[in-house]
Each structure stands twice: as C-alpha cells, then as structure tokens.
Write a structure and sequence with these properties.
By secondary structure, the chain is α+β, with helices and mostly antiparallel strands. It has one domain. The chain has 2 helices and 4 strands. It has a two-stranded antiparallel sheet with strand order 1-2. A hairpin with a 2-residue loop joins strand 1 (2-6) and strand 2 (9-13). The longest helix is centred in the middle third of the chain and has 13 residues, at 25-37. The protein starts with a strand and ends in an 8-residue tail after the last strand. The model has no long low-confidence stretch (mean pLDDT 78).
C-alpha cells in the first residue's frame, strides 16, 4: 500500500506499473494531450497512438530501434482497483 496525494486528497491505493498497450489507448491519448498542452512535443510527432504503443514496446524490448534513438522504457502507473492512470 502507498499513501498517494492526488489533487490535494490523501488516499491509500495499490498501484501497478504497466507497459503501454491498447487497453489503455484512451488514457494514453489523455496523457499525450496533457504533455502537449504543457509544451512537451515529444509525443506530438506521433499522431497514431497504436504506432506509438508499438514503438514504445519495441524500444522496451530493444527491437527495431532507429539509429537516432536509444533503448528506453515507458511505464504508466495505474491504480489496481479501477485501472485509472495516475501518471
């Protein structure tokens, strides 16, 4: 169990880290939108969420990485009780 402060509200929740997948496609869209609005345009180049998910998983597995990129992993923190994205 973790004590998490979200929006000024203290809550206890179990969280899990998940790799991007199509189950979370809508939440990934929200994530992308939040980052673009904040001025981070790294995701704005990827308009196709399914392609971004595939690329993110390829990076995680060190497969088909373009020469100008390095291997990396992206995880989303989601609550176990309702599968909502925290970050």
């Amino acid at each position: 169990m973790y004590n998490i402060l979200i929006g000024g509200i203290n809550m206890e929740s179990q969280i899990m880290l998940i790799l991007p997948n199509e189950k979370y496609e809508e939440q990934i869209r929200e994530y992308k939108s939040e980052h673009v609005e904040a001025g981070d345009h790294g995701l704005s180049n990827e308009c196709d969420i399914k392609k971004w998910i595939k690329d993110a998983n390829n990076n995680h597995n060190n497969q088909d990485i373009p020469d100008n990129r390095v291997a990396s992993s992206v995880y989303f923190a989601v609550t176990k009780e309702n599968n909502k994205r925290l970050v």
